[in-house]
Amino acid sequence: MFNIIFRLLMKVIGITGTLGAGKGTIVDYLVKNKGYVHYSVRAFLSEEIIKRNMMVNRDSMVMVANDLRAKHSPSYIIEQLYKKAISLGKDCIIESIRTPGEIIALKEKGDFYLFAVNAKPEIRYQRIKLRNSETDHIDFKTFLSNEQREMTSNDATKQNLVKCIEMADFVFYNNTTIETLQQEVEKVLTKLK
Hints:
Layout: H1 2-9, E1 12-17, H2 23-34, E2 37-40, H3 41-51, H4 58-71, H5 76-88, E3 92-95, H6 100-107, E4 112-118, H7 121-131, H8 140-151, H9 161-166, E5 170-173, H10 178-192
Parallel strand pairs: 1-3, 1-4, 2-3, 4-5
């Protein structure tokens, strides 16, 4: 009974987008300014990778994510994060959605909106160099290659960012400043009220 009430009251935002486009910037804004709770696919996968005694990098993230989706379902990772969100019952953002199956599963749950963010490749590459996470120590050619691997697939268990962005309720083009992106997000949140 309480889960049904929580689902009616809580708002779930999923976020998808290209590498370094600004997904984390939107997440930070929603968490710090709007009280959203953040559920991270990256953190979920990092825990699983460590359990498997593997190096935490983009290759292992893709491999483990694809393995979990193949063993369980195309929406398995997102379903696990959604269960955590429901148990808390607060507005939340789930980052980063990479398969159409994940989007379909979340849209079936109720009050769900998908945000997508994109930017020019050169801008995005400079951003990932600045954030300096464990998966970002790569050259521009590798950056483009990694992204291409995740852009399209006919396999429901594998990344398909092109389709995910097409399925988004709102798309942000983050080629300028953080402030501009935050203003665009704020406009969308006003529409969702």
